[in-house]
Design goal:
By secondary structure, this protein is α/β, with parallel strands linked by helices. 57% of the residues lie in helices and 6% in strands. 49% of the residues are buried.
Length: 780
């Protein structure tokens, strides 16, 4: 079987010339949604063949349709179906489930794309992106600092320096001055130098994963083309030539974040030695080296901040340049400084003993303060942008980005605090010989129980609202199925499904409340550390019995919960490695979370759309060029988002040959509300006017898909009335068995799907192709 071939060189098209005999052929390109499927299921045929692509993402046809363009007479009146299968980009193997550990990085990257739609304000838009990039940088430093806390402070400094703890963990014996008879590794500086290899290895692993995943997923070049004049108006960035190719920015950020991680480890290893040299009055040469170390760290931090602040995304053209000197030199320079610091810290210092804990409170406190200030400033900037083009459908009135950035910082705090608390409990057990992690982490753990109480109250409110909505829906269900014998159980089940599906629209409320409470309680924890310097239980000793008991309970419960949260995250990844069902669920999470390119954090999970969107664009462009035909782009769920993004990447002449059929689509319900700058009403309206035609199907029982809600007369031209679900209330001639409630799946089972599909295909047939439309006139 001969496969169809597509050739690309340096981002320019090449291929066979248009075949006149294939000009009457129509193509139906199917794009599946979250969770993935098989080409056999999409094409409804057990015999399929891959005509383009690889094991990661590919286009399939039925075996009988592989050479359809050579037999155009066999396809008059019906399209050639193709299936684009991209599920392996997100849930192809179990190791990707471990990307859950990168969840804070992914969430802060989403905050970058949640910028409100605006008119003008170019500098303010750049400031918004800069603030999110700085928040992402603090998360990298926080993660590496947590690794330093575990490896250097708790393990090498406290446990190895305490006889009782070292005896309980024999593998630390060679580091203990009491058990190794002052062996070579028992010196405090040498213990820190050896332990510093752990967070250094973590930083290098993050660099490697970022580089490898970009090469595998995001290095596909989009179709090279000139920007359209309309794109310069800021209608949507998804149509810009360089939107899906962020090589230069990702490389710069990867170098900066890698250097930031290495500088954090360098400070953790060399800082204690420099402080001892300065305070103990040691040799002058060591004191000078300590000052040089501090100066080098300051210079390195300034350079990292300059790199992060200097440049954002370049989308108006395909940016293939690479700052090679910067990308290579910054990490290498940080590694060289770290290596010199290892030699400096390992120098013999008589009289230096490890007592108490390393001074990590200032580091974690400074990070918490910086994150809070960044989130507050980001909220002010987002509000300024929102007021230039207010839209009542925008989530949280434009504050979705700051709220999500706050959640990313909270997730980072839970993960760092959870690791530190659990490792401290594991090392110390019930002996009480260790001082423990920094006090701020204990305060942050103590505010988790109040946060959960607020969350429980919010869930209760939503449950009450859902119960009331279900009562209203029961009346609506009876009106939707007139003349049917009343079945209370059946009616309640349908009404409950509709009410539960409506909870998706309440997500902004939950995110906003949780983010505000997290910011408020986090600020309280920071104030508690600064004013008392003790853990909550110790700080409340002189208070009333009720206050003291509440503080002790919050501290104990919070410590347990913060560790439990991290353990659940890790076990979820392990379970996903072994359980295909769990792996599929986590794959759905990544389908939603990793659609966007890595613009704020280079260590976030890879963006599958930087592979999928160019794939779809190349396929549509090469097929229309070779055949001169027209096509229907049919997308379900997340596939409809990919379809819209690919349509925006087409030249106007090709875009006019495309008809869109979307079903179960989150284009407006999720993306339009949370990402208004790219999927807002103006962007979706322009897409409707520029493609040949667009129809959208949805159900009231669908928790993900919904109407597109275009303003004015465009709305009814795109959205069909809600489909009935279930198709039949009771047993009928067509449905002798009870019809299922389909919700988000199996839209093809509804007769309306075939009807709308046939309408679109009828428009694309040569004898029915309409003339050019005026800009303001949308065809149905």
């Amino acid at each position: 079987m001969e496969r169809a071939r597509e050739h690309a060189s340096a981002g320019e098209l090449s291929g066979p010339a248009q075949r006149p005999e294939a000009a009457d052929t129509a193509l139906e390109l199917l794009v599946h949604g979250v969770g993935g499927t098989t080409p056999e299921e999409m094409l409804d045929d057990p015999r399929t063949v891959r005509i383009s692509g690889d094991e990661t993402a590919a286009v399939y046809r039925r075996v009988d349709d592989a050479d359809a363009e050579r037999r155009p007479d066999d396809y008059r009146g019906r399209p050639v179906p193709e299936a684009y299968v991209w599920c392996n980009l997100t849930s192809g193997n179990g190791t990707r489930a471990l990307w859950l550990l990168l969840l804070p990085f992914m969430v802060v990257n989403l905050a970058h794309w949640m910028r409100p739609a605006t008119r003008g304000r170019t500098r303010t838009v750049r400031l918004y992106g800069l603030l999110v990039r700085l928040a992402g940088l603090t998360l990298t430093v926080l993660l590496v600092a947590a690794a330093c806390e575990v490896a250097l402070d708790l393990t090498a400094w406290q446990c190895a320096g305490t006889r009782a703890c070292a005896e309980a963990h024999s593998w630390l014996g060679f580091l203990s001055p009491d058990l190794s008879d002052n062996g070579w590794w028992s010196r405090p500086g040498r213990r820190l130098a050896l332990a510093g290899l752990v967070p250094t290895g973590l930083t290098c692993l993050l660099w490697y994963l970022s580089h490898r995943t970009w090469s595998a997923y995001e290095s596909q070049q989009p179709v090279s083309r000139r920007p359209e004049p309309a794109e310069e108006t800021g209608r949507t960035g998804l149509g810009r030539p360089g939107f899906w190719y962020g090589r230069r920015l990702v490389a710069r950020l990867r170098a900066a974040h890698t250097a930031a991680g290495l500088l954090t480890v360098t400070a953790a290893v060399g800082g204690p030695a420099a402080r001892f040299d300065r305070e103990a009055g040691g040799p002058a040469v060591l004191g000078i080296l300590g000052l040089l170390l501090y100066a080098s760290l300051v210079v390195g931090a300034v350079v990292v901040l300059w790199v992060v602040c200097r440049r954002g995304r370049s989308e108006h053209r395909l940016d293939q340049e690479l700052d090679a000197t910067l990308v290579r030199g910054l990490p290498l320079g940080s590694i060289a400084l770290f290596a010199l610091t290892l030699l400096y810290a390992g120098w013999s210092r008589p009289g230096w003993h490890s007592t108490g804990r390393l001074p990590g409170d200032a580091t974690f406190g400074g990070l918490a303060l910086a994150q809070g200030l960044l989130v507050i400033t980001l909220g002010v900037v987002a509000r300024v942008l929102y007021r230039t083009r207010p839209d009542p459908r925008t989530a949280l009135s434009g504050l979705a980005g700051p709220a999500v950035a706050m959640l990313a910082c909270a997730l980072g705090g839970v993960m760092s605090g959870g690791v530190a608390q659990r490792v401290a409990d594991w090392l110390d057990g019930t002996r009480g010989s260790l001082t423990g992690p920094p006090v701020l982490l204990t305060w942050q753990a103590s505010v988790i129980p109040p946060t959960l109480l607020v969350l429980l109250g919010l869930c209760g409110r939503l449950a009450l609202r859902t119960w009331r909505l279900r009562r209203l829906e029961m009346r609506a269900v009876e009106l939707d199925y007139p003349g049917e014998a009343k079945d209370t159980t059946r009616t309640r089940r349908i009404a409950s499904t509709r009410a539960m599906a409506a909870l998706t629209d309440r997500a902004p409320l939950m995110v906003g409340v949780i983010s505000f409470v997290t910011l408020l309680l986090g600020a309280g924890a920071l104030v508690g550390v600064l004013t008392t310097g003790d853990a909550p239980a110790q700080a409340a000793r002189g208070s009333y019995a009720f206050v003291r008991g509440a503080a002790e309970a919050a501290q104990a419960l919070g410590s347990w919960l913060i560790g439990l949260g991290f353990i659940l995250l890790v076990t979820s990844g392990r379970r996903a490695y072994k359980d295909p069902a769990a792996r599929r669920t986590i794959g759905i999470l990544w389908d939603v979370g990793t659609f966007w390119p890595r613009a704020a954090h280079p260590f976030a999970p890879p963006c599958y759309a930087e592979r999928a969107v160019p794939d779809l664009t190349w396929r549509m462009v090469t097929w229309t060029r070779a055949t001169g035909g027209r096509l229907v782009l049919s997308g379900h769920s997340q596939g409809s988002v990919l379809a819209a993004a690919a349509a925006w990447q087409l030249n106007p002449s090709v875009r006019r040959r495309v008809a869109l059929l979307t079903y179960g689509s989150p284009l407006e319900r999720l993306y339009g509300r949370w990402f208004p700058a790219h999927f807002g009403p103006a962007a979706l309206t322009s897409l409707h006017r520029e493609v040949d035609c667009w129809r959208n199907l949805y159900r009231l029982t669908d928790p993900i898909g919904g109407p597109v809600r275009l303003p004015g007369d465009c709305g009814p031209q795109v959205d069909r009335a809600p489909l009935k679900d279930p198709l039949a209330y009771g047993r009928t001639q067509e449905h002798p068995l009870p019809a299922p409630i389909l919700g988000h799946g199996d839209y093809q089972a509804d007769p309306a799907f075939a009807e709308e599909r046939e309408r679109l295909l009828a428009r694309l047939r040569p004898e029915a192709v309409p003339g050019p439309r005026p800009d303001g006139d949308a065809a149905t």
